[in-house]
Amino acid sequence: MLITRLTVPPPHPRGWPFTIPAVRRLADGIDLTTPVTFLVGENGSGKSTLVEAVADVCGINAEGGKAGTRYASTGEATPLGRALHAEFTTTGLRLIRGPRAKRRAFFFRAETLFNLGQNVSGLPGFWEEDLTGQSHGEGFFTVLDRMVAGPGLYLMDEPEAALSFTSCLRLVALMDRVAREGGQIICATHSPVLASLPGARILELDEDGIHCAGWKDLHLVDHWRRFLETPDAYLRHVLDHGAASPS
Ligand SMILES: Nc1ncnc2c1ncn2[C@@H]1O[C@H](COP(=O)(O)OP(=O)(O)OP(=O)(O)O)[C@@H](O)[C@H]1O
Ligand SMILES: [Mg+2]
Question: pLDDT tens across 172-187, in order?
C-alpha cells in the first residue's frame, strides 16, 4: 500500500466542493485498505473531484499524466487538493514524493487522454505511438500497458470510457496484475465489469456521503442486472410512446 488514508482536516472550507456530501464525509477520513479501490456513484456524486484532488496531493497534473510532469496547466491545485491530507506508507513516500526520477505515479484520465497524448507521445518515459493513429480503445491500451505497471500509484477516471466488454475484462486482468506487483489503484468508474475485480474495495458516493459496499449490492450492478433482464421496465419510464421489448 502506498496511500492508506485520505482526510480533510479542520478547518473545513465553505463553498464548492465542500458542499458535496462525499467530500464532507472526508472530514472523518476514509481508509484505503486494499491495493485497488473503486469509486462508484451517480453523475455528479464527486468521484472525479476526489480523484483529481488525490492527483494534486501526489504532485500529478489534475488533467492526467505522470507525477512530477506538469505538461500543460496553470499548476494550480484544485480546491479539494489544497485541503486534502493523504497518509503515505514509507514506500508510498518514496514512490510518490521521492526524487523525481524514482517517482511512479500516473493519472489515467479518460476525458483528456488524447490531449495528454499530443503533449507527451514519443517523449522518454511515455509511449512511442501516436494515439491519433489508433482507435479510441487501442489508444487507451497503448497508454495503460505502458504506464500502468509495477509498484506505483495509478489513478484512473472512467478508464472504461472507450473500452468494449472484452477490453474491460482485459483491464481487470491488468489491474489484478498491478495489485500483485505492489501497485495501488484508485479508480472512478461506472463499469460493473471493472468493479468486479476480486479483492478490490468499492466506495459508493451518494447524497449521504461515502459507503463501503459489496459488488452485488451496488446500485450500479442492480440497475444493470434488472435492465438486462427486462429492458422495458426501464424504457417505459423514459420513452414517450411506451416501450416494447427490443427484438
Ligand atoms: N469547477 C467546478 N466548480 C463548481 N462545481 C463543480 C466544478 N466541477 C464540478 N463541479 C460540480 O461538482 C459535482 C461533482 O462533480 P464530479 O465531476 O466530481 O462528479 P462525478 O462523480 O465525477 O460525475 P460523473 O460520473 O459525471 O463523472 C457536480 O455537481 C459538478 O457539477
Ligand atoms: Mg467524473
Answer: 999 999 999 999 999 9
